[in-house]
Each structure stands twice: as structure tokens, then as C-alpha cells.
Amino acid sequence: MTQYGARHVAIIMDGNGRWAASRGQPRPYGHRAGVEALRKIVRAAPDLGIEYLSVYAFSTENWKRPEAEVETLMDLLVEYLRGEVDELDREQVKIIFLGDDRAMPERCKREMDIAAARTGRNQGLVLAIAVNYGGRDEIVRAVRRALADPKKAAELDEETFGDFLDTAGMPDPDLIIRPSGELRLSNFLLWQSAYAELFVTPVYWPDFDEQELERALQHFQQRDRRFGGHG
Ligand code: IPE
Ligand code: IPE
Ligand code: MG
């Protein structure tokens, strides 16, 4: 089942802009190609033993981008969900969202709610789409939720704190993949990545395919995960 031993894989879907520029095209062209890459990777994941796939689609910092680019990204989210939800539902994929959806445009929230409700009972791959997600923001929201329940707040430990995060119920990511070569997390899964293995590839996200995913998993399999212990 988990032939590579990575139950939870998280991907920072980066490099759409550079991919487009390398083709002399505008950024939206790259974002559109990025959605195609996502479609393929979601299909490929279960066969590679992945049970949880988290994808970073829009960060709390991405609002700094020009309004037109933000609009394009929001439109693509709606388009992706509308276009994919039927088939993903048939394939037993459960779609969830990480991040603060309160700041999302209504049209996005509507599709997000539909996708989550439609697929909520599915037992297959969990696809966690991070939109308006920031690791620090998630931790602050979790602290606020914990404080709202003084009894729980007093008994808080590392495990119970996890229940207040957007990823409640999910195992920590085993592997975080970053296409496009940047050596940083850019605010993705800060709490959960404590012992995640990192894989960075120069391949831009729109060119990231099943073979590249498998290559990442093969690298992961070679890692010696010590979690602070030894032997
Ligand atoms: C990833 O591609 C998409 C988002 C961050 C929303 P970028 O748009 O960051 O592409 P680059 O990094 O500029 O190439
Ligand atoms: C990270 O990519 C966010 C997503 C992929 C959604 P960015 O392109 O925003 O990250 P930085 O700015 O290079 O750190
Ligand atoms: Mg980028």
C-alpha cells in the first residue's frame, strides 16, 4: 500500500510565473498550466501509496500580488473545483481546505463548501488544498480556538494542540516537495513540518509530473529519519 512509506506528501506548487516567462507567456498562462499539473498529480498519488496530499495553492502573503493575478488565481480555484469534483468524488477522494476561508471571495467559498460537503464521507485520498493559508496564521487561529475553551487550554500539550490546527486528524507530512528550486517553506505547515523530509527540484510546477513525484518518493525512501534518536 504505502510502497514508499510516505503517507502524507505536501507540495508547494511554485514556479508557474517562471514557467510562463520561460515560454514568453504572461503569468496566468503559467497558473493555468499549474492547474493541469495538479490534476495529474492528484490522480497519480493514490497509486504511489500516498494517503494525504496537501497542496499549497495560495498563501496569506499572496494577497500582495497585483489584483488581476489574485483574481486569476481565485477564478482557477473555482474552475478546478467545478471541473474536478465529480470525478474526484467517484474516485473516493476527500477534499478539505487548509487556511482561513473567511477572507476568501464568496464565489470561492461557495465551491469550497460544495466540494467539501460532496466528498466529506469519502474514504480514499485526502486532498488538502491550502488557500489563504499561512503557517503562522494557522497557529494563531489555533491558539485563539484553544483559549476559547479554558479547560482544554489548561491541559494543552503538543498532541492536543494539533487538534486545533487546520490539519486536525491528519498525520504530519512525511515529505514536503518544493518545485522551482527555492530552499524555503514560505510559511507552509510550520508546526507540522517539524520532522518532514524536504525535497527540492529545479523543475517548475507546471512541468512536475508523475515521474518527478516518484523520483521524490524514491529519494524519501533513502532518507534516514531519526526523529532525534539514533541507531
Ligand atoms: C506558484 O507560482 C503559484 C502561487 C504562488 C500562487 P508563482 O506564481 O509563485 O511562480 P513564480 O515563483 O513567480 O515562478
Ligand atoms: C509559495 O510560493 C506559495 C504557494 C506556492 C502558494 P511563493 O511564490 O508565494 O513563495 P515565495 O514568495 O517565493 O517565498
Ligand atoms: Mg513563487
In short:
By secondary structure, the protein is α/β, with parallel strands linked by helices. The protein has helices at 16-21, 27-44, 67-90, 106-119, 135-147, 150-154, 158-162, 210-222, and strands at residues 8-12, 52-59, 94-98, 126-133, 175-179, 197-201.
> Which sequence of SSEs, written as H and E, runs from N to C?
EHHEHEHEHHHEEH
CATH homologous superfamily grouping: Decaprenyl diphosphate synthase-like
Give the distance, in angstroms, between the N- and C-terminal Cα atoms: 26 Å
Helix fraction bin: 40-55%
Structural class: alpha/beta
**What is the fold-level CATH name, i.e. the topology?**
Undecaprenyl pyrophosphate synthetase
Give me the Rg, rounded. 18 Å
Key features of this structure:
6-stranded parallel beta sheet; binds magnesium ion; 16% strand; alpha/beta; binds 3-methylbut-3-enyl trihydrogen diphosphate; 231 residues; globular; Undecaprenyl pyrophosphate synthetase
